[in-house]
Design brief:
The protein is mainly alpha-helical and 155 residues long. The chain has seven helices and four strands, in the order E-E-H-H-H-E-E-H-H-H-H. A two-stranded antiparallel ribbon has the order 1-2. Strands 3-4 form a two-stranded antiparallel sheet. A hairpin with a 2-residue loop joins strand 1 and strand 2 (7-9). Helix 1 runs parallel beside helix 5 (94-112).
Length: 155
């Protein structure tokens, strides 16, 4: 299991990340690193200053954009959600939180039109942080990259 801070990422969620990321053409290591940074692999973590929660610390706004509203799947990634039988009725469901976070990251990658992790992070982190400064985004990218190095001993 991947562990960090006081949480651990169960094997079924690790498999889900690898499978979804393969379908989305996203580096699964980035999703692991973001989950570690955002929640320390704690599925029940909630931000007291915003609506962010779960492994990926998704905001209600992000959840609504990528997931499910008024009983209907959004078309954006409904094929992914259906393929992996993701129940999108609860933003804090660990599988749903991870799946929507990965789809959000994939969309940011697509919109930035770049394979640059920094450009994708600009989109992902900036998604819910409209006032995020360049310095904050660079620091977020550095922390995520450092976690990548720590988790996977990348040189």
């Amino acid at each position: 299991k991947y562990t960090g801070h006081s949480g651990a990422l169960p094997i079924d969620l690790q498999s889900l990340i690898y499978n979804i990321c393969s379908d989305l053409n996203v580096d699964p290591n980035m999703i692991f690193a973001i989950a570690l940074h955002e929640s320390g692999f704690q599925s029940n973590l909630k931000n007291h200053y915003s609506t962010a929660s779960g492994y990926m610390q998704l905001l209600d706004k992000t959840w609504g954009y990528y997931a499910y509203t008024n009983g209907e799947y959004h078309d954006r990634y409904s094929d992914i959600f259906k393929k992996y039988k993701i129940n999108l009725t609860d933003k804090n469901d660990p599988m749903a939180n991870i799946a929507v976070g990965a789809c959000c990251f994939a969309q940011c990658k697509k919109e930035k039109g770049s394979n640059s992790s920094l450009q994708t992070i600009v989109g992902y982190y900036g998604e819910g942080n409209n006032a995020a400064s360049t310095l904050e985004i660079l620091e977020y990218h550095k922390v995520v990259t450092d976690y990548l190095n720590e988790l996977f001993e990348i040189e």
